[in-house]
Amino acid sequence: MTETTGASDQRKGRGRRKGLKVARIFTTPGVHPYDALEWERRDVVMTNWRDGSVNFEQRGVEFPASWSMNATQIVASKYFRGAHGTPGREWSLKQLVDRVAGMYTETGRANGYFASDEDAEIFDHELKHALVNQLFSFNSPVWFNVGTTSRQQVSACFILSVDDTMESILDWYKEEGIIFKGGSGAGVNLSRIRSSKELLSSGGTASGPVSFMRGADASAGTIKSGGATRRAAKMVVLDVDHPDIEEFVQTKAREEDKIRALRDAGFDVDLGGSDIVSVQYQNANNSVRVSDAFMRAVDTGSSFGLTSRTTGEVIGTVDAQDLFRKMAKAAWECADPGLQYDDTINDWHTAPESGRISASNPCSEYVHLDNSSCNLASINLLKFLGEDDTFDVERFARLTELIITAMDISITFADFPTEKIGETTRAFRQLGIGYANLGALLMATGHAYDSPGGRAVAGAITSLMTGTAYKRSAELAGIVGPYDGYAKNADAHKRVMRKHAAANDDLRTIGSMDAEIASAATAAWQECLKVGDKNGWRNAQASLLAPTGTIGFMMDCDTTGIEPDFSLVKFKKLVGGGSMQIVNQAIPRALRNLGYQEEQVEAIVEYIAENGHVVDAPGLRPEHYEVFDCAMGKRYIKPMGHVEMMAAVQPFLSGAISKTVNVPEEATVEDFEHIYYQGWKLGLKALAVYRDNCKVGQPLSTSASEGKGAAASTAQEAPEPEVIEVNRPIRRRLPKKRPSQTVSFSVGGAEGYITAGSYPDDGLGEVFMKLGKQGSTLAGVMDAFSIAISIALQYGVPLETYVEKFTNMRFEPAGMTDDPDIRMAQSVVDYIFRRLALDYLPYDERAALGVLSAEERRAQVAGEDPAHYAAQVESYAQSAPLTPAEQKAETAAKAEKAEAPAREETGRAQPHTTTELLELKQGFVADAPLCVTCGTKMRPSGSCYACEGCGATSGCS
């Protein structure tokens, strides 16, 4: 444990300087933390599943043997600095950790954080041990920037401000652009901007904040189009009493209607499509700031006043219940807006004398002053579960102290995107410690996520973490001083600390595990209040729960942030290449904790590996099913289970929680109203709800026929009628008996068949495409389409004409296929005609059309002649051999009885991520986007999505 050496010691002549005395937690004197691990060299080659191209390659990288290949790939590709192929490129995790930890240690040493050089060295070793053993991780900007020649930006979360002037609005555009350019995101509250119902000083009518949102949205879209992310990370907030609130609420729902209209007219409005740029407000999350007064008006069915931004007077009223329903309906339609509970947020504000909290970062976990930022770090909770299934309370608390010390040091050397953000952050020193793997910890210890026991454990851990963090903050204040804004806000800060401690006193323990943690939390809060009353606090904020997308993969976490387990089986990459599926290791541990014998555990694990769920697993008692409930799948956690878990931990967090509550497609507007209302009653700070498939898909559509102009030109008057002989095409019918082949396929989870008949002397003569259930509209349309194509082929229309017209046509279903030659299809029609081209067209014609087999593409990349590999392009064969990677995966799967083969039957799509594996096992399509970098399906992470394949996120750092 660390302890402080104060100025009184110096006055007593002990000769010791003011600073932290650092005791060892995990390390051993005389042994460097790197030497305690086994290290190995690995080759990292990351490919795009869509076309087989190599996204990233670095061979001979050095990582601990205990790290998964997935974590290795993500760290090597995202966090290693230096130009590829040069001696300056980092190649070892040791170099990365030395670069980052070295900067923290030297800055702490130079600024008086440590009592001696020996303490600084111990701090350095403890920090490195924690990082290389995956006990915690800093947020991504730290790994990107610290210790490099770049600006030392350490913060991932930003909040901006905008006033009711054109200069301020233009500054907002500029500052947001700078933050986006750096790969981060920002939030802003637009409520200071006067409404469209108010006058300008010149006498004209104001545009209103929604109008200015268009410009910011266009700016964000332009900047992101030149970068690497699919969408900007951006939050826009408006207060519920703003006169333009109804327009704001309907903003994105109306745009969804526009998307449908454009789609039905044949425009390309798919994500990234050429016509989607005409749709507005797609680069931001929208949230309404609701007050207690408004929610009480909803409760009583009263009217609610809308206030002028210029005079503060009420200039209109709305029916509160009607407006609340409009919010719920808009969110039901398009997932926006979310709600932020203003009075709850500001009741827990440690610095109210310096300004209200009016906005949040894009994922809603960071809520503090305008023009500020927060750097994050997350603890891997599962690392503190001992072999005896007890939680190591002492080491968890001591690691929390270590992390808070390091995070505060980082503010000392950090750079910021704007001077205003730098000034506020240095003055209030906001930190955001959090955790990951909560869901895995609960399952491993036999606690259902949606249960009083699960919530008790989560609440106790969160209370211990924040109490310890603020205790260390108070100790740091005694060494290097409290934050600059503390004196002005001392009473408020102390009040909030007492509120946290009182919430801890209200914790109701259920089992021995949470009772032990809660006892330690109580001691931490008592010490926090005692030391803080004397020293003040070094940080205005200490904790929150972030999505932990990329860093969750870096730490090999099964679950991210506060989330439950995503699925019971997951996809694992192998060090030597290839991949396999495994049953989450928390499951056998949970079964043993629930009292099952080894033979029963083995049978249940094998059943889960085969089916992906526990329903009807042999010997598993139904009352234990809930322990294995997941975010998705056959048994999924009910929406209120997520809300109640958030409520269990919220009183113990300085900030808020990044989490979207997912509800099934059949959820109603009333369900949304209930969830949003309960979020307020249960004391949450922010809440977003997402209904499966609420975003517009891309159903089958046809574009307008071409050649209308040519048809019109024939109507011109001729001087004399002229008889023209027309050579009509002759239909060449197929014989009664003809060769044919059938190919089964899967595109974006939709399965179908192609049956192609040929003339005896070769040449395609008919095609029948089956998709959808017999008797359905889709099946009927496909049958009619097949007949039309077949008749045209028999009349002599060349196949290459159809290939040219129908490849690259976009509509849903689209995405990954199970065809090794066509990894990604824009639509079912795109896939079908690419497959027909590969099967029936010669190489020269296919090459001109850009349709090549996987082997031909590999030859092309290698500089060989693809024509040598084009002698025969085969369709699927029942006896198709496994690739070396698949053979290795199958061998490893047999060695582990808890694991199943990577591909169970020919013709089924081979998964590349846990999301795709879950779809394959349980027969449904996850409502998640494809990664733009590697083509795999992403998985939910907090309020955004993270890619398990390459670590990319959809907007959160």
Summarize the structure.
Residues 736-839 form the TSCPD domain. The protein has 957 residues and is of the alpha/beta class.
Draw up the topology in text.
Blueprint: E1 3-5, H1 7-11, E2 19-21, E3 39-47, E4 54-64, H2 69-78, H3 93-110, H4 117-132, E5 136-138, H5 140-145, E6 157-159, H6 166-181, E7 185-189, H7 209-225, E8 234-239, H8 245-264, E9 285-290, H9 292-300, E10 303-307, E11 314-319, H10 320-334, E12 338-341, H11 342-347, E13 372-380, H12 393-413, H13 419-428, E14 431-436, H14 438-444, H15 452-480, H16 486-505, H17 512-535, H18 549-554, E15 569-573, E16 579-583, H19 586-593, H20 598-611, H21 639-649, E17 660-663, H22 669-681, E18 686-691, H23 708-713, E19 740-747, E20 750-758, E21 764-771, H24 777-794, H25 799-806, E22 815-819, E23 822-825, H26 828-840, H27 843-849, H28 854-861, H29 884-895, H30 914-922, E24 939-941, E25 944-946
